[in-house]
Amino acid sequence: MSAALAVAVALAGCGAAAVTATPARTATPAPTATGVKVLWMGDSIAGAQAPAVAAALTAAGVAVKDATSAGGGNVVAGGHEVTTMGAADTWKRLQKEIASFRPTVIAYQITAYDWGTTRQQLAAYRKLARTAGDAKARLVLISPPPFKIDDFFRPHEKAIRSAPAMAAKAGNATFLDTADLWGDDPAADRAQRAKDGIHSCQQGSAAFAAWFAKRLGELTGFTPAAPAAWATGRWTGDERFGKLGCG
């Protein structure tokens, strides 16, 4: 099954109309700009979703900047060397992105590296809410998809499990629970994980993008583009999917 066809099947499975790729006969008019500008943040899990998120939102007239980071992207420093370094980089980059991109929405998907106590997690998410407020941007916090807790993540499983609940308590932010889309079992077909059990391939990323665009549109007042306008685009060939062994 081709990547484009797999995306179409996945979208049909999550309630969107199936997409059939046909040769374009006329140029597609550019979408009307909505004035919404989304800074998409997170780790490599969010990074695998980024191509589809950008395609779906751009098709709706929303500007998007991918600020995800592989092996980091976290805002919770905790007390671990890995997360302390990752958080420092994330906060530094966030200030630069706010100054240059001037987002109206900061969308942060909770990372697999938001290790720390519940107090540290809550403090970090509240700091993110204050930072967004100072930038006059709406903060949207998104729970991560269910993913395989392997030997690397197992020592930090408690923190990984508690992070979404702390994000939901941050205040001055909108919390979106992706369990509505993915469920809570990373091994289930519904979770649409790649071979590694952690990231998503094209079809899973497209399913998320359609789900996210609908909810963000409800929050900010834009109308999401139909999947036919973006689901079989060039983004399906992004190198990130190749590295994950996606078809």
Automatic annotation (TrEMBL):
Annotated signal sequence range: 1-21
Classification via Pfam families: SGNH
Keyword Signal listed: yes
Keyword rRNA-binding part of the UniProt annotation: no
Keywords: Hydrolase, Signal
Domain SGNH residues, every copy: 34-161
GO molecular function: hydrolase activity
UniProt-listed SUPFAM superfamilies: SGNH hydrolase
Name of the protein: SGNH/GDSL hydrolase family protein
Organism name: Spongiactinospora rosea
